[in-house]
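Replying to the earlier thread about multi-chain prediction with a worked example.

Input:
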Amino acid sequence: MRVLVGPDVPLPEMYAATSEPWLRVNMVATVDGAATGTSGTSRSINNEFDQTVFNLLRQQADVLVVGAGTLRDEGYAPNPLPIVVVTRTGSVPPTLADCAPGQVLVATCAHADGLDGAREIVGDEHVLVLGSHRVDLAALREQLVERGFRRILCEGGPHLLRDLLDQGCVDEVDATIVPRVIGGTHPRILDGPPVDVPLRLHTLLEQDGTLLARWLVDR
Ligand SMILES: NC(=O)c1ccc[n+]([C@@H]2O[C@H](COP(=O)([O-])OP(=O)(O)OC[C@H]3O[C@@H](n4cnc5c(N)ncnc54)[C@H](OP(=O)(O)O)[C@@H]3O)[C@@H](O)[C@H]2O)c1
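Result:
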């Protein structure tokens, strides 16, 4: 591994949050900007080095925040870290439905069709109602911090990442570029209406052509 920008220190130190509370997002794309590969998920584009940092970021987190679309598409299973499902409809992905109490939280809104169902599946106290028609993501961040989750890791997907950036909730964007182009029609790491958020490069690593960057949101 080569450090192209940033101090040459052990990887965990390189990725330590610069303050707390801290919300970081972690995404991977090809050189031509595809956030998914032929499988329709990011699994067909990520690689070993990306996975190493993906795992490290989980080790450094207290909680995972993931959009319901990604949880459904990627078939997330319950994790040692609590998973927060962000959903407008209030639907809990089937692969998380048998979770132990507190392993899955649902962040949704009062008008969600699936609100009652979500309460039944994960328990009342684990459903965060954060707005009437949309999920207030800044309020989500605050509530997670109040519950003691100070190191928040979001693993996407593209719509949630766009909304988190739009609502000023993100401190850090970790982006991997894998050394391939795949063409075709695939989402980028952000999807939805335009946003414009300046970033400052904190760290850039390279291994076998894979580039891993830590970008801090420039406030
Ligand atoms: N390259 C990468 O690093 C990476 C990372 C993650 C995912 N992906 C890929 O991205 C694809 C999924 O894309 P996507 O954009 O659909 O993912 P997504 O943002 O996880 O899913 C969209 C769904 O999540 C919920 N959601 C997102 N933002 C929300 C908000 N602000 N408020 C309330 N609910 C919100 C909604 O769920 P409801 O429909 O339940 O209301 C929405 O329909 C998959 O193919 C996945 O593999 C790639």
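Helices lie at 11-14, 48-59, 68-74, 115-122, 137-146, 158-166.

Feel free to reuse this layout for your own posts.
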